[in-house]
From TrEMBL, chain B:
Transmembrane regions listed in the UniProt entry: 33-55
Keyword terms: Membrane, Transmembrane, Transmembrane helix
Annotated region described as Disordered, given as residue ranges: 1-26
Entry keyword Membrane: yes
Species this protein is from: Chelativorans salis
Lineage: Bacteria, Pseudomonadati, Pseudomonadota, Alphaproteobacteria, Hyphomicrobiales
Name listed for the protein in its UniProt record: TIGR02588 family protein
Length: 290, 149
């Protein structure tokens, strides 16, 4: 509700600040910090995320930090601080978003006393680096989402549009799975479940995704899903594909956080299915919200 | 409520932006079917694997073994690195590992640790610390107990 009300207000502000470039910059940075906090706080206040900061495999952490850059660039291209037409504009926005994410993480972790000067540099850097990934995604989205604009599908060829839909689903899946993957509950739930529970969860995830993607989609407004599309066509091209993306993103998140080390295939698949549930919801919601 | 808002926002956005779907053909591209088909294969493979396991798993209890990997001298004693293995189809939680150093069938030192989880057919590594050199005596590592997760 609040978002709906802030939308016209956001557009008014946009018009006002257009007169003063300095105010525009400050408002943009403020929105970035707002987004970083909204998206990052759940993880900044999760103790497993603090612990992961010092014990997560350094190679996997570095890979996550590096992969975050192309992810932010593509996201900026879709949902940037402003309409970007050139790649170096995207790069600048990404650098600013990453910096906002890092600063927001440092400030919040320091205020919580989770990061102190008494700690070794390796621990501080690890904790901040891990948190900066979700916070930077939030900073990038914050400026567009809090500013009242909406992500427009890229005006490219059909394949590019389809790829961008899948990319947005992957971002949604990554975001929600990063939120919950570090907690112990993810693996605990998978240990409590039997194979039958897992199959039921797969069916529930796919059903909910399809409800989001197809049934709740405003028929006709989405150019990739014209109203006369048969259900199985949307099901195969978006729902099943989105769920497969959610499963793979879940596997990546579990691997990054060391949840797959020395674990047999069946328990890994079970925790993948558990984590893919929120990831699937995130993927489906990303198409509506972003 | 939320759904309604979503819809009105969507239609608002559609009015503001020029429609750009006229240029598109109605039929989805072949690539979309290829990606959809591959995704269906991934999902079906996972469903099939879990189904196979669900059908072939009898209700059973964890089978725990503790394997000594190496014994190393540290600054203030000795460290025994072990790997606890669960050979069953169910996960064991709160596994208590006890290490004993025995001389002439008498325990002269014990050490212990609790492992949070050992998933089915998986392992978990850990270490036990002793003040005496375990390699000079008889070293026993056993799993003392567990709970269902």
């Amino acid at each position: 509700m609040q978002k709906a009300r802030s939308r016209p207000a956001g557009q008014e502000i946009e018009q006002q600040v257009r007169q003063s470039p300095r105010r525009k910059l400050l408002v943009g940075l403020g929105r970035g910090f707002g987004g970083a906090l909204i998206f990052g706080l759940p993880m900044l206040m999760t103790m497993e995320m603090w612990w992961l900061g010092f014990y997560v495999d350094r190679f996997r952490l570095a890979l996550l930090l590096i992969l975050n850059v192309p992810l932010l660039i593509l996201l900026s291209h879709h949902a940037g601080f402003e309409e970007t037409t050139r790649w170096h504009d995207d790069l600048r926005d990404v650098a600013v978003a990453y910096a906002i994410g890092i600063v927001a993480s440092v400030v919040v972790l320091a205020v919580f006393g989770v990061v102190t000067f008494a700690m070794p540099a390796d621990e501080i850097v690890g904790k901040v680096a891990l948190q900066s990934v979700p916070a930077s995604i939030g900073a990038l989205l914050g400026r567009s989402q809090l500013g009242g604009s909406k992500v427009e599908p890229s005006e490219g060829t059909e394949q590019v549009n389809y790829a961008s839909e899948l990319f947005l689903m992957a971002v949604g899946a990554l975001f929600l799975s990063l939120n919950v993957a570090p907690t112990e509950e993810m693996v605990l739930i998978s240990y409590k479940m039997t194979g039958w529970h897992a199959l039921a969860l797969i069916a529930l995830s796919i059903f909910l995704m399809h409800a989001f993607v197809y049934a709740l989609e405003f028929a006709g407004s989405d150019p990739s899903l014209p109203p006369e599309t048969p259900w199985w066509s949307a099901f195969l091209r978006f729902t099943v594909t989105g769920y497969a993306i959610a499963l793979l993103i879940s596997l990546y998140a579990l691997w990054t956080f060391g949840r797959t080390d020395d674990v047999a295939l069946m328990p890994v698949l079970m925790s993948m299915v558990v984590l893919a549930f929120p990831a699937a919801i995130g993927a489906a919601a990303a198409r509506l919200i972003l | 409520m939320g759904q309604k808002r979503q819809r009105s926002m969507k239609s608002g956005a559609a009015q503001q932006t020029p429609k750009h779907d006229e240029s598109r053909s109605k039929k989805p591209h072949a690539l979309e079917w290829v990606v959809g088909g591959l995704s269906a294969l991934v999902v079906l493979a996972i469903v099939g694997f879990i189904l196979y396991h669900a059908l072939n798993t009898a209700a059973m209890k964890p089978e725990l073994r503790v394997l000594v990997e190496q014994v190393e001298a540290t600054d203030n004693g000795f460290r025994v690195d072990f790997r606890a293995v669960n050979g069953s189809d169910v996960t064991a939680a709160g596994v208590e590992i006890e290490g004993r150093i025995e001389r002439d069938a008498q325990t002269i030192e014990t050490s212990g640790v609790t492992i949070d989880y050992i998933p089915a057919h998986s392992g978990q590594r850990g270490g036990l610390l002793f003040s005496r050199d375990p390699s000079r005596y008889r070293l026993r590592l056993v799993a003392k107990g567990y709970t269902d997760p």
